[in-house]
Design goal:
The structure is a single chain. The strands form two sheets. The protein has a three-stranded antiparallel sheet with strand order 3-4-5. The chain has a two-stranded antiparallel sheet with strand order 1-2. The chain has three domains: 119 residues, DNA polymerase, domain 1 (Orthogonal Bundle); 160 residues, Intergrase catalytic core (hpI Integrase, Chain A); 32 residues, no CATH class. It is globular and about 60 Å long. It has 367 residues and is mainly alpha-helical. Helix 2 packs across helix 4, helix 3 packs antiparallel against helix 4 and helix 10 packs antiparallel against helix 11. The chain has 15 helices and five strands.
Length: 367
C-alpha cells in the first residue's frame, strides 16, 4: 500500500529485509517471520502492511535507544513507547482549505487515539507471537491499557454533493468514463475502494442486479444490490473503454488502467480527490465518503438498519449504528414538526414568544 500523498513512508520496509541475513533475535530477523506467519494464517495483505509499518516505527524508536534485540523488550520499554506515541506529532495539520498540509512550528497534530491503538496493538501481537515461538520469556505488553476509543462521526456527502462530483467526470475521455462508472459503483453498492477495485467481470449479475464481493474486509464474501444507473455506466465503460487497458485476454479485473493492479488504489483515490476539489467539496476523504453517503441516504429514506449493515458487510450492528447519528434529516423533520418555536419566523415573533413563555421581553436581562 502506498503512503498518502505528500507524506514519506515511515518505518522499516520489511519486504527488503532478508531474515536469513539479519542477526538472530533482532527485529530485522523476527518481524519478517511474524508477518509471514500472519500471511499463512490468512490475514489480508492490508493488515500485514499495517502491522509491518507499525513495527517499523517501533523498531526505529528502539534502535535510537540501542534496543536492537527482541530480548531487550521489557514492560518499561513498552510503557515508554506508549508515552512517546501520546506526545508525538504527525508533522501534518489541517490547512486553511481543509486539506492536510505540512505543519510549521507546532509539529502538526497529535496522533489520534486510533493510530496510537493500532501501533500498540501491533507491538502487543508481535510480542505475543515471540513468546509462543520462544523468543521472549513473557509478553511485556500483556497488560497494556489502550487509549479509549473516540466516538467520532464520519463525514458524508449529501445527494447534491454526490451529483456534483459525478458531474465533474469528463465522460468525453476514456478515463472520465471509467471514473464515472467507478463512482457509480461505490455509491450504488457501498463497497470499499479495495472491494470495488477487486471486482471481476463475472462478479456483476446484471439480470438480478447484484454484485458479488469476494474476500472483502476480513476475507468475507457477500452480495450487494446494484442499481440500474450504475449498471448502465459499467456497461458503457466495459463496452467502449476497458479494452484499451486490457492487454491480456484472460484479464478479468473490472477496473483497469495502464498502471499495475497494486497501484490502482492510489490512482483512484487521487482521481476522486481531484474530482471532489473540482466540485468545491472540501470534506476529508475521497472514495470512502461514497460508502458513508450510501448508508446515510438509505437510512434517511427509511431503509432498515439491519439491511444496511448486511449490504455494508458489518457483522455487528454497532458498526452500522453510527449512521443513525449521521442521518439527521429525520431529526430535523421531527424538530420542525413538534418543537413549539421551530416554526417561529419574522421580526418580533421570537421576542413575543419569549415574553409569553417567560413573562419578559427578549431584550430584558434578569439577574
Amino acid at each position: 500500500m502506498g503512503a498518502k500523498r505528500g507524506r514519506k513512508p515511515q518505518g522499516v520496509q520489511w519486504s527488503a529485509v532478508a531474515p536469513a541475513d539479519a542477526p538472530g533475535g533482532s527485529f530485522a530477523h523476527l518481524v519478517p517471520l511474524w508477518l509471514a506467519d500472519l500471511a499463512m494464517q490468512q490475514y489480508t495483505q492490508a493488515t500485514c502492511d499495517t502491522y509491518g509499518r507499525a513495527m517499523g516505527r517501533f523498531a526505529q524508536w528502539c534502535a535510537q535507544r540501542e534496543l536492537t534485540q527482541v530480548t531487550h523488550l521489557t514492560r518499561a520499554v513498552v510503557a515508554a513507547y506508549q508515552r512517546f506515541l501520546f506526545t508525538a506529532r504527525s508533522g501534518y495539520g489541517r490547512g486553511p482549505s481543509g486539506t492536510h498540509a505540512a505543519a510549521a512550528a507546532s509539529g502538526g497534530l497529535p496522533l489520534s487515539g486510533k493510530t496510537q491503538r493500532s501501533s500498540l496493538t501491533a507491538v502487543a501481537r508481535f510480542c505475543s507471537w515471540a513468546v509462543r515461538r520462544g523468543h521472549l520469556p513473557a509478553n511485556p505488553a500483556s497488560d497494556l491499557e489502550y487509549p479509549r476509543k473516540a466516538r467520532t462521526l464520519p463525514e458524508t456527502l449529501t445527494p447534491e454533493d454526490v451529483a456534483a462530483v459525478l458531474g465533474c467526470c469528463d465522460v468525453t475521455t476514456p478515463a472520465g468514463v471509467r471514473d464515472r462508472a467507478f463512482l457509480e459503483v461505490l455509491y450504488s453498492t457501498g463497497l470499499r475502494k479495495s472491494e470495488a477495485l477487486g471486482l471481476e467481470l463475472d462478479d456483476l449479475d446484471t439480470v438480478r442486479g447484484i454484485v458479488r464481493v469476494v474476500s472483502g474486509k476480513g476475507r468475507k464474501d457477500r452480495y450487494c444490490p446494484i442499481g440500474a444507473r450504475a449498471l448502465a455506466w459499467v456497461s458503457r465503460y466495459v463496452t467502449a473503454v476497458r479494452s484499451q487497458w486490457c492487454q491480456e485476454t484472460h484479464q478479468q479485473r473490472l477496473f483497469l488502467d495502464q498502471r499495475p493492479a497494486a497501484r490502482m488504489g492510489e490512482l483512484m483515490g487521487s482521481r476522486v480527490h481531484r474530482l471532489m476539489r473540482q466540485a468545491h467539496i472540501r470534506k476529508r476523504g475521497a472514495c470512502h465518503l461514497f460508502r458513508h453517503a450510501f448508508a446515510t441516504h438509505l437510512l434517511e429514506n427509511g431503509c432498515d438498519i439491519r439491511l444496511i449493515g448486511s449490504m455494508l458487510g458489518h457483522d455487528d450492528l454497532s458498526s452500522t449504528a453510527i449512521y443513525t447519528h449521521v442521518g439527521v434529516r429525520a431529526l430535523v423533520q421531527a424538530h420542525a414538526a413538534f418543537h413549539p418555536a421551530a416554526k417561529e419566523s419574522g421580526s418580533g415573533q421570537a421576542g413575543d414568544s419569549l415574553a409569553g413563555a417567560g413573562g419578559q421581553n427578549a431584550g430584558e436581562v434578569t439577574p
